[in-house]
Amino acid sequence: MTFSKKLLAGVLLGVLPFVAPQMASAARLENPVAVFAGIDKITGRITTFDVYVNETVQYGALQVTPKVCYSRDDTEAQKIDGFVEVDEITLDRKIRRIFTGWMFADSPGLNAVEHPIYDVWLTGCKAESDVPAPAPSN
């Protein structure tokens, strides 16, 4: 091994103990509530609404169901993302899946749901909501 490779290896080994603890703290935190914003393009009204994970909320003709909502702890830069399913209730009362995938709060245009009348996007995650939690199923 050449001197420069030994020096590089020594530097890396000396730095790893300081880097590893920081990497461990970057874990995603699961949250029970996803926060969405939606716009009704006819009225121009923007609405913010909370949805519990694995519950469905209707927004206009859309049904929004978050499957998971992740954030980071307060020591990390917030990167909020969630896996979401969105269904449309058609005029003939059929339910049609129009979106399944990840939404990213810091890039709302990337994976927002765009519908002819309603757009929906993830804005945040939180541990609790003013909206009452759904009753446990028996």
How many domains in all?
1
Beta strand count: 9
Mean pLDDT comes to: 83
Distance, first to last CA: 66 Å
Tell me the Rg in angstroms: 21 Å
What does this structure look like?
The chain is built from one helix and nine strands; from the N terminus they run αβββββββββ. The chain is α+β, with helices and mostly antiparallel strands and 138 residues long. The protein has one domain. It starts with a helix and ends in a 12-residue tail after the last strand. This is Glycosyl hydrolase family 5. InterPro entries: DUF2155.
Provide a brief overview of the structure.
The chain has 138 residues and is an alpha+beta fold.
What are the salient characteristics of this protein?
138 residues, alpha+beta, 5-stranded antiparallel beta sheet, 4-stranded antiparallel beta sheet, 1 helix
Question: What are the SSEs and their pairings?
Answer:
Elements: H1 3-24, E1 29-30, E2 33-40, E3 46-52, E4 57-59, E5 62-71, E6 81-89, E7 95-104, E8 113-114, E9 118-126
